[in-house]
Amino acid sequence: MTRRASRAVHAVLALVVLAALCTQVVLLLGGGADANSGAAEAVPVVTRFVRFLSYFTVQSNLLVLVGAVSLVLDPVRDGRLWRVVRLDALLGIAVTGLVFGAVLAPYVHPTGAAWWVNAGFHYVSPVLAVLSWVLFGPRPRVDGRTFGWAFVWPVAWTVCTLVRGAVVGWYPYPFLDVDELGYAVVLRNVGFVVLLSVALLSLFRLLDRRLRPLPRR
């Protein structure tokens, strides 16, 4: 029963993320708004998609989609690389939900189909992803090596974002805009996100140890 419920919940999560991704792709192809910024930018379509894939939100949701689909196929999925991907999905989507709700939401006002994409990316996916992990695991999966490797992707994303921004003059989020804020403020903002990430990873590792193992083989 637990495995059936896990498959059902992760299937719903996968469908939510997939629907949001497909809708956003259609919007970008038609010159519509990007739900991450709430605006339709007058740039070439290739640039639109490169920017879209540059958002931490989008990469986090892609990781969630990979994890959800894999757990629909096998609710007791395991493996060294899979553990890191799964933990990064949890970290990324939790940071996405918290940072968007606390910092970015007042600046993003999508309408129409983009409103639904925004809801899927920033509200439904974070809540459902974390809740499904609490309810169905699989766990234990977060050992010391997994904890350490989980930092590679967010650190790489941050470095690449700042380097690319310095070259092309575009940053995915206003709190990372060096041209507008300067490096001192941006590095302070990055420091806050790093502390949040460490706290979340530590919490996930603690819960992974304390909550009962799931699913049972």
UniProtKB/TrEMBL annotation:
Keywords: Membrane, Transmembrane, Transmembrane helix
Keyword Lipoprotein: no
Signal peptide feature range: none
Tagged with keyword Transmembrane helix: yes
Membrane-traversing stretches: 52-73, 85-107, 113-136, 148-173, 185-207
Taxonomic superkingdom: Bacteria
The name this protein goes by in its record: Pr6Pr family membrane protein
